[in-house]
Specification:
Elements (H helix, E strand, L loop, with lengths): L3 H6 L2 H9 L5 H19 L2 E4 L1 H13 L11 E5 L26 H8 L3 E6 L19 E2 L2 E5 L5 H8 L5 E6 L5 H7 L2 E4 L19 E6 L2 H11 L24 E4 L10 H14 L4 E4 L7 H24 L5 H11 L3 H21 L5 E5 L15 E2 L2 E2 L8 H9 L2 E6 L10 E6 L4 H15 L10
Parallel strand pairs: 2-3, 2-6, 9-10, 9-11
Antiparallel strand pairs: 1-3, 4-5, 6-8, 7-8, 7-14, 11-15, 12-13, 14-15
Helix pairs in contact: 3-4, 6-7, 8-14, 10-11, 10-12, 10-13
């Protein structure tokens, strides 16, 4: 554990333990990861901003402390560039904010710092998080470490690549329609989209909105659980966070799993269906796996409506005043919402409620629901949007995300794990879905899949 190479291979949990025992200094951990960033980021473009001097100052504080500051004492982490960091540039992936330096941390960042984590920098994202390829007018494309010609996925692609390439052991992300899950699948890492409100967002303008959540990407389940343990907990300014209930009942020794390749409505590529079927065959070794899905009729149209309304409400003024500086993807997203009526919105909420109740009914007879974590495998960076799957045209540029955004729609939590693969196969992950509040049970099952089935990260062969 003395070389930079081996330090960068350690998980956050292992690093925190070693630093707490003074087997390794925080400064050594920071320098090793900064060296990896310097070596790999030119090719991969995972980071928009690197705060080397700030990280070194924080490491000195950790090393001088008489006792560990918190559970992530001295551990290098990265923050997605959609989330505010005090004194550190936060661009939201947009040239409109290229010089924006927030005065305060977002709560999730503040909690990471209080736990002793050291922020190395900000990871790349499409403008305002809207886009299939992780690129913008400031940085990118963020390239897949398993094949740099391919996309890392969006919109937490920078965080997924930073973790997969050993630039950090743990990275923050956000997830609206699949933004931690798709990059996790493409980059062979694990991710968590927790119960909405589990990680509070007290400055969110729409306090009851549960489509968007903070999340994390890491190389194993233990690190995801550690990150959530220090960032979770209620905040009275976030109404969702005060209603989160823990359900810590253990799952059965041989749990019941419902499996669906597409929720009955999502477009999914043939090669993904084949990879998913093989993963389900492996799951049958540790669980009773039964094909089953909630009734998701109307779910795609519902998410399109709600997402468009939210985006138009948040960014409509920018379209009116700064249109030439926006990317085409953001313009399309805002314009899609500008045409909606209140009746459109409420009818979508009505359909959303029906889908939620169907999910709840399914979980009266199953422990987990499993689905693909992406509808396609990584594609070339030069292709900006997925417009067709297996030759069939998609109605909108977001429909390839249906296999993930259906879960966002109902607010269930999701653990994404990479599945076992051959050396010549691209990474692919599965979503393991559980009802709100069941994080402990989900993490426990995830560890079972890591240890017994080998559903775990494999390092890319970096140049």
């Amino acid at each position: 554990m003395t070389s930079d190479q081996s330090i960068c291979d350690l998980t956050a949990t292992t690093l925190a333990r070693a630093i707490a025992k003074r087997e390794l200094s925080s400064r050594d951990a920071v320098e090793a990861h900064l060296a990896r960033i310097a070596h790999s980021n030119v090719q991969l473009a995972a980071f928009v901003t690197v705060d080397a001097e700030g990280a070194r100052r924080a490491a000195q504080i950790c090393d001088a402390a008489p006792a560990p500051i918190g559970p992530l004492h001295g551990v290098p982490v990265a923050i997605k560039d959609l989330t505010d960091t005090a004194g550190l540039a936060t661009t939201y992936g947009s040239v409109l904010f290229r010089d924006h330096v927030p005065a305060e941390d977002d709560l999730v960042v503040a909690r990471l710092r209080r736990a002793g984590a050291i922020i190395l920098g900000k990871t790349n994202t499409p403008e305002f998080g809207f886009g299939a390829v992780c690129t913008n007018k400031l940085c990118g494309p963020t390239r897949n470490p398993f094949d740099p010609a391919l996309t890392s996925g969006g919109s937490s692609g920078g965080s997924a690549v930073a973790v997969a390439a050993g630039m950090v052991p743990l990275a923050h992300g956000t997830d609206f329609g699949g933004s931690v899950r798709t990059p996790a699948s493409f980059c062979d890492v694990a991710s968590i989209r927790p119960t909405p409100g589990r990680i509070p967002s007290p400055r969110r303008p729409l306090g009851w909105d549960m489509l968007a959540t903070h999340g994390f990407l890491a190389r194993d389940v233990n690190d995801l659980e550690l990150a959530l343990s220090v960032c979770g907990g209620g905040d009275t300014s976030d109404p969702l966070s005060t209603g989160v209930v823990n359900d810590d009942r253990p799952f059965a020794r041989r749990p019941r799993i419902a499996m669906t390749p597409d929720f009955g409505v999502a477009p999914v590529a043939r090669d993904v269906r084949a990879r998913f079927a093989a993963a389900c065959d492996a799951l049958a070794g540790v669980a009773d796996v039964v094909p089953s899905s909630p009734d998701c009729g109307g779910a795609i149209e519902t998410f399109r409506t709600l997402r468009a309304a939210h985006i138009a409400n948040s960014y409509g003024e920018l379209l009116r005043t700064r249109r030439p500086e926006l990317t085409p993807t953001v313009i399309w997203n805002i314009e899609a919402g500008a045409k909606l009526s209140a009746e459109d919105y409420l009818n979508a909420e009505r359909r959303r409620t029906a889908v939620y109740r169907s999910f709840r009914e399914l979980f009266t007879r199953t422990d987990f629901l499993v689905a693909p974590a992406a509808s396609v495998l990584p594609w070339p960076n030069e292709i900006g949007d997925v417009t067709a799957i297996d030759g069939a045209s998609l109605e909108t540029p977001i429909d390839y995300l249906a296999v993930t955004f259906i879960v966002s729609l109902v607010g269930f939590l999701v653990l994404t794990l990479p599945v076992r693969r051959e050396d010549n196969e691209l990474p692919f992950g599965i979503q393991i879905i559980a009802p709100p509040g069941c994080e402990s049970r989900l993490f426990a099952f995830g560890r079972t899949l890591e240890h017994e089935l080998g559903f775990s990260h494999r390092r890319p062969k970096l140049p």
